[in-house]
């Protein structure tokens, strides 16, 4: 599940292969071509209804602040990439290090890509 702006960031502006792509448009006009593996939703309510057909463990919310905020209260696991640099981002979510209901359950060694340092973290809901 991702926002329509994320689709424009994908290679060739094409949906992710091998997955059902649920694209949240938030009512914006788009040229998203739907198919059996590309579905488009104008409202959170429509999206929630469609998500009922999928197991929770198969649903990933990526790159959309409105979706992050909407679904965090019912999210059990969050995967985060922390970058040791401050970028201007187009999507933010709550700092899970300060969230009383989440704790880190796994993390990676620091990774490097040229001069960029990053790590992966898994947060799980504690209650």
List keywords for this structure.
globular, 127 residues, 15% helix, single chain, 4-stranded antiparallel β-sheet, 3-stranded parallel β-sheet, alpha/beta, 28% strand
Q: Can you tell me about this structure?
A:
The structure is a single chain. By secondary structure, this protein is of the alpha/beta class. It contains 3 helices and 7 strands, in the order βαββααββββ. The chain has helices spanning 4-7, 44-51, 65-71; strands at residues 2-3, 21-24, 38-41, 77-83, 102-107, 111-113, 116-125. The two termini are 24 Å apart.
- What is the succession of H and E elements? EHEEHHEEEE
Distance between the termini: 24 Å
Q: Tell me roughly what share of residues is in helical segments.
A: 10-25%
User: Structural class, judged by helices and strands?
Assistant: alpha/beta
Largest β sheet strand count, sense and barrel closure: 4 strands, antiparallel
Q: What gyration radius follows from the Cα positions, in whole Å?
A: 16 Å
How would you sum up the global shape? globular
Number of strands: 7
Low-confidence stretches: none
Number of helices: 3
Q: Which percent band covers the strand fraction?
A: 25-35%
Q: Which whole number gives the mean pLDDT?
A: 92
The oligomeric state is: single chain
């Amino acid at each position: 599940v991702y926002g329509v702006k994320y689709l424009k960031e994908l290679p060739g502006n094409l949906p992710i292969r091998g997955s059902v792509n649920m694209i949240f448009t938030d009512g914006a006009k788009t040229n998203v071509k739907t198919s059996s593996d590309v579905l488009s939703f104008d409202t959170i309510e429509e999206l929630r209804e469609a998500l009922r057909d999928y197991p929770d463990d198969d649903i990933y919310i990526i790159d959309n602040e409105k979706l992050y905020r909407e679904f965090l209260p019912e999210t059990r696991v969050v995967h985060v990439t922390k970058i040791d640099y401050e970028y201007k981002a187009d999507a933010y979510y709550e700092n899970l290090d300060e969230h009383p209901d989440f704790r880190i359950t796994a993390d990676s060694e620091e990774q490097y890509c040229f001069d960029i340092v990053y790590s992966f973290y898994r947060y799980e809901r504690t209650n």
